[in-house]
Design brief:
single chain; 454 residues
Length: 454
C-alpha cells in the first residue's frame, strides 16, 4: 500500500541523515495517517493534526508554562515566609550595604584594610543610629507629662466641638460610644493579653534580627564583590559574564536609589519637623523621625506619617494648628513630588508611578510593611537587569557605562530614538557601495575578494 511505502521512505531518509550527520532533504509525502505534509526537518517528528487551531495550541503551551511560573513563585513566597526571620534581616542589610558602600570604598582607596574599613563604617553608622534613638527617647520621656495633659484637654475639646458643632452630637451619644469602647476592651481582654505575648515574641525576633543585620552587613561591606563572584561561578559558563555585569549595573541602581531615598526622607523630615517646632507641637523631633522613616516607602509613606503629626496637633493644639500642619505636610509633599523626585530619584531609576503603586500594594499584601519597603528597590533592580540583558545578551558593557533603566522611556525619548534610527538608515542608503572588482561580484564582498564577517 502507498502509506507503507511512505513510512519506509521516511525511515530510510532518517537513517541516512543520522549516519551522515547532515540535514534532511526536503520531502513531501501524502497526508495519510494524520501526518502533516511539508518538508521534513532534521530531528523533527511528525505531528498529529487533531483539528486544533494553531492559535489554541500556542495559547495552551503558554498556559501551562504560566501555571508552572505561578506555582514556582508561590513556592518561593512560601519559603520566604517560613524563613522571614532570616530573609528580612538580609534584605535590610543589603539596602544598608548599598548605602554605606561608597564610604567603605573611600576608606579602601586611602589604603585602609577592608576589614577595618567595613568595621569603621559599621560602628559609625551604629553610633549615629543609637545617638538619634537616644535623643528621640529622651524627648518623649521629658515631654510625656505635658503631653498627657494636652491630650486630655484636646480630647475634651474635641468632645465639646462634636457636641456643639455642626454635627450636633449629644453628650449621651458620646458617653455611649466611650462606654461601648470600654466594653469592647474588657470583652477582648484575652485577645489583648495574647497579643501582648505575641508582641514579646516579636521583640525577641527583632533583637535577633538586629544582630543578624549587623553581622550580615559587615560581611556585605567587607566581601560583597567576592560573594557576588562566587554566586556567578555557580552558573553555566556562557551565563556568567552577562549575569555578573547585570548584577554590577543593578547594584549601581540600588545604591543610587537608596541614597536618593535617604536624601528625600531627610528633606521631608526637616521640613515637617521645622513646621511642628515653629507651631510648638509636642514631640516635634519624634514626629520628624517618624516622617523620615515613613519616607522610605515611596508615595504613601511620608503622607501616612504626616497624618500622625496632624492628629497629634489636633489633640494637643486644636483644629487651627492641625490645619496649618496639614498645609505644611502638603507643601513638603509638593516639594518632594515636583522638585526632589525628578532631580534625585529620576537619576537613580526611572519607574512609572503606576508600577510604583502596584509594587507597594503587592509588597503590603505579601509581606506587610517590610514588603512595601523592599518592593520598589526590588522592582528597580529587576528593571535594570532585564533592560541590560535584553539589550546586551552577551554581557558587553553599555556604551556610556551607565546602568540601563535610569532614564524614562517616555514618548519624547521614543520619538528621539526613532528619529536617530531614521537618520542612520538614510545615511546608510545615501552612502555609495564599495567598488567591486567585477560587476558580477557579490555586494557583500569587498574589492579584495575576502568575505565580510557578520
Amino acid at each position: 500500500m502507498s502509506w507503507i511505502g511512505s513510512v519506509r521512505e521516511r525511515a530510510r531518509i532518517r537513517l541516512t541523515t543520522a549516519r551522515r550527520g547532515s540535514s534532511l532533504p526536503p520531502f513531501r509525502g501524502d497526508n495519510v495517517l494524520g501526518y502533516t505534509t511539508g518538508p521534513v526537518v532534521a530531528g523533527a517528528t511528525p505531528t498529529v493534526d487533531d483539528g486544533i487551531p494553531r492559535g489554541v495550541r500556542i495559547a495552551g503551551a503558554w498556559a501551562w508554562r504560566l501555571i508552572l511560573f505561578v506555582a514556582a513563585a508561590y513556592l518561593l513566597i512560601r519559603v520566604i515566609a517560613i524563613l522571614h526571620i532570616v530573609v528580612i534581616p538580609v534584605a535590610v542589610a543589603l539596602l544598608l550595604a548599598a548605602l554605606f558602600e561608597p564610604a567603605v570604598r573611600v576608606l579602601r582607596n586611602r589604603g585602609i584594610n577592608r576589614s577595618l574599613a567595613a568595621g569603621a563604617v559599621l560602628v559609625g553608622g551604629l553610633a549615629a543610629v543609637s545617638g538619634g534613638l537616644g535623643l528621640i527617647v529622651g524627648t518623649v520621656i521629658s515631654q510625656f507629662d505635658d503631653l498627657s495633659t494636652q491630650v486630655r484637654d484636646g480630647v475634651n475639646e474635641v468632645q465639646t466641638w462634636l457636641a456643639g458643632g455642626p454635627l450636633h452630637i449629644s453628650q449621651a451619644q458620646l458617653t455611649g460610644w466611650f462606654e461601648g469602647l470600654q466594653q469592647q476592651i474588657s470583652e477582648n481582654q484575652g485577645a489583648i493579653t495574647s497579643g501582648a505575648v505575641s508582641t514579646a515574641t516579636t521583640v525577641g525576633e527583632v533583637v535577633a534580627g538586629f544582630f543578624l543585620v549587623l553581622f550580615t552587613l559587615f560581611f556585605f561591606l567587607r566581601d560583597g564583590a567576592q560573594i557576588w563572584q562566587f554566586v556567578c561561578r555557580l552558573l553555566p559558563h556562557p551565563a556568567r559574564i552577562p549575569v555578573a555585569r547585570a548584577g554590577h549595573y543593578s547594584w549601581h541602581t540600588l545604591g543610587s536609589y537608596v541614597r536618593a531615598t535617604v536624601l528625600v526622607a531627610f528633606v521631608d523630615a526637616v521640613g515637617i519637623g521645622i513646621g511642628l517646632a515653629v507651631l510648638r507641637v509636642p514631640l516635634a523631633l519624634p514626629l520628624a523621625a517618624l516622617v523620615f522613616l515613613g519616607a522610605f516607602i515611596p508615595v504613601i509613606g511620608a503622607t501616612l506619617s504626616g497624618t500622625v503629626a496632624i492628629l497629634v496637633a489636633l489633640v494637643t493644639q486644636g483644629p487651627v494648628t492641625a490645619l496649618i500642619v496639614l498645609g505644611v505636610v502638603i507643601g513638603v509633599q509638593q516639594l518632594e513630588g515636583h522638585v526632589l523626585q525628578p532631580l534625585t530619584m529620576g537619576r537613580a531609576v526611572a519607574l512609572h508611578p503606576l508600577a510604583v503603586i502596584l509594587a507597594i500594594a503587592t509588597g503590603l499584601v505579601v509581606a506587610g510593611i517590610i514588603g512595601a519597603l523592599v518592593a520598589v528597590p526590588l522592582l528597580a533592580v529587576a528593571n535594570t537587569a532585564v533592560r541590560y540583558l535584553n539589550a546586551h545578551p552577551q554581557g558587553e558593557p553599555t556604551p556610556d557605562r551607565e546602568p540601563p533603566g535610569t532614564r524614562a522611556t517616555d514618548d519624547e525619548q521614543a520619538e528621539a530614538e526613532q528619529t536617530a534610527h531614521q537618520s542612520e538608515t538614510r545615511i546608510e542608503q545615501e552612502t555609495p557601495p564599495p567598488m567591486a572588482t567585477s560587476v558580477n561580484s557579490d555586494p557583500g564582498t569587498p574589492a579584495d575578494g575576502t568575505a565580510t564577517g557578520t
